[in-house]
UniProtKB/TrEMBL annotation:
InterPro entries: His_Pase_superF_clade-1, His_PPase_superfam, PGM_Phosphatase. Substrate binds at R10, H11, G12, R13, T14, E15, W16, N17, R60. GO terms for molecular function: phosphatase activity. It comes from the Bacteria. GO terms for cellular component: cytoplasm. This is Histidine phosphatase family protein. PANTHER family: BROAD-SPECIFICITY PHOSPHATASE YOR283W-RELATED (PTHR48100), GLUCOSYL-3-PHOSPHOGLYCERATE PHOSPHATASE (PTHR48100:SF62).
Length: 215
């Protein structure tokens, strides 16, 4: 058996998002706008009658999930496998600051080439494998009547879902980043896999402020 729908939901805005600072696994809280985004998005997602609620244990994702938990009464199931990509000593730095000190590394990231973030962070491939494995584990639980909300992070969601769907890495850049508190909806497909129902859903297009280097 498997779930009937997966909603992969990005957390609300943080001050570091606004400042274009890489967050990675630094535990940065939602700012006031992010809290309001989470409340508004939670009200929309509650209308889908979710039956399970997972979240990264980083507080920006946990607080976002908390708004939906408050409306639905669902218990949040925390999973550290749903964390954002680990960027090590790049955390707290802007793209401009990284470009000034490690231009070749940042250029490889932007080109979609294999590159570890920071001194000892993850590669895109590593976080894609981690998130894909978590989605696989979560998706096989439950029944076709279940709608599962998974609260996570922008870059991790994008590359993890691409890996989960079997999309070749050369095409990952064709899938745009998620705005704060927007989500991706996945439905089972006829071939026992999954298909995209909605991508970056939840609002009109907004600027993407995240660790995702597409911008």
């Amino acid at each position: 058996m498997s779930a009937g729908r997966l909603i992969v939901w990005r957390h609300g805005r943080t001050e570091w998002n606004l400042q274009d600072k890489m967050q990675g696994q630094a535990d940065i809280p939602l700012d006031e706008v992010g809290i309001e985004q989470a409340r508004a998005a939670a009200a929309r997602l509650a209308s889908l009658a979710p039956t399970r609620l997972f979240a990264s244990d980083l507080q920006r994702a946990a607080a976002t999930a908390g708004e939906l938990a408050a409306l639905t009464g669902l218990k949040i199931e925390y999973d550290d496998a749903l964390r954002e990509i680990h960027v090590d000593d790049w955390a707290g730095k802007t793209s401009a600051e990284i470009a000034a000190t490690q231009p070749e590394a940042l250029a490889r990231v932007r080109a979609g080439q294999t590159q570890r973030r920071g001194t000892a962070g993850e590669t895109a491939e590593e976080v894609a494998d981690r998130i894909s494995a978590a989605l696989t584990r979560i998706s096989v639980e439950g029944t076709s009547e279940d709608t599962v909300v998974i609260t996570t992070h922008g870059f991790a969601a994008r590359v993890g879902i691409c890996q989960f769907l079997g999309i070749p890495q050369a095409h990952w850049s064709a899938f745009g980043g998620l705005a704060n508190c927007n989500w991706i909806s996945l439905l089972p497909s006829r071939n026992n896999g999954w298909r995209i129902e909605e991508w970056n859903a939840g609002s009109l297009p907004e600027p993407v402020m995240s660790d995702d280097p597409q911008r």
